[in-house]
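Page 37, continued from 36.
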């Protein structure tokens, strides 16, 4: 760590220090303390961005699992839906019935899980 009196000469002094070690096995990259700290801030931003991406992927996977569960439930109950259609219920009524049931189950499960 090198302390300098004139902050305006920081770039010039950094280049001189790097020139001293240019041909050695341990080359240096001299920078100001502020630039060093900003490098760490940039790394933490990358970590936060990767966590956000992972969270989005997890949410998409959960939505796919919910969609699969809804599809399995509707396939298992096709005979019940057929009976309702034979009794005269419209296809839109069945769609609302299936969607409402799935939404209600998901909401109840989410509320139970949050407590």
């Amino acid at each position: 760590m090198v302390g300098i009196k004139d902050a305006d000469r920081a770039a010039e002094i950094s280049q001189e220090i790097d020139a001293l070690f240019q041909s050695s096995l341990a080359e240096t990259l001299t920078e100001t303390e502020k630039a060093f700290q900003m490098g760490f801030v940039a790394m933490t931003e990358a970590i936060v961005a990767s966590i956000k991406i992972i969270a989005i992927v997890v949410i998409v996977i959960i939505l796919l699992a919910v969609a699969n569960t809804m599809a399995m439930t509707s396939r298992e109950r096709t005979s019940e839906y057929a009976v309702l259609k034979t009794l005269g219920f419209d296809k839109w009524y069945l769609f609302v019935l299936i969607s409402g049931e799935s939404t209600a189950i998901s909401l109840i499960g989410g509320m139970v899980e949050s407590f």
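The chain has four helices and no strands. Flag for discussion at group meeting. The chain has a mean pLDDT of 87.
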